[in-house]
Input
Amino acid sequence: MTIPKTERGLSNRITKIRSQLSAFKREYGFIDDGGGIRYFLFYLYFLLGDNRRSSEFIRWYEKEFPDDIGEPIQILCWALILHRMGKNKDAEYRLADTMLSNIYLIPYLLGNPVKKAEMWHSSNYEDPDIIDYLPDQIKNAIAADDLEWILELYNSDKFQKVLNRHIAINHELESIPIGDARSKLVKENFNLLDVFR
Output
């Protein structure tokens, strides 16, 4: 999907997508979003920069998709929206979620080299190729103070400890067979974000 270049274009696209999703829910009683346009909305709200509208959207999203795991760029936009709102604890959680959803995205934003780690990647969202899908508009809209905030948290002991454990677990998952030991590691990996709640 192309991203509109003007504030009016962003606003119009948001309204159109939200209307489509609402119409689907009215007709069928639920929202079927196999195409992932709910994720694209985060891109648009981040670029729009309207805290009031973003806050209302996030409440709606959490109500409609309470168990949605998301995708890395969407989660990054969510973290940055919350950061700009001053919701520090929630923003920190979403940035950690970004880091674990794709270990390459934050280093790329910080100008670090990206090399595929020797570990299990459970989906294409976890591959280094995700950086190829980061729209230029999103990258260019990340301000210097946003990057300072990302750098400070990413380099913190808390983030690095969780990241290193995540990589170690997924390295083990590359070769460990299905069974209790694998299930235990998968559960631990799933719970790594708990320290940020």
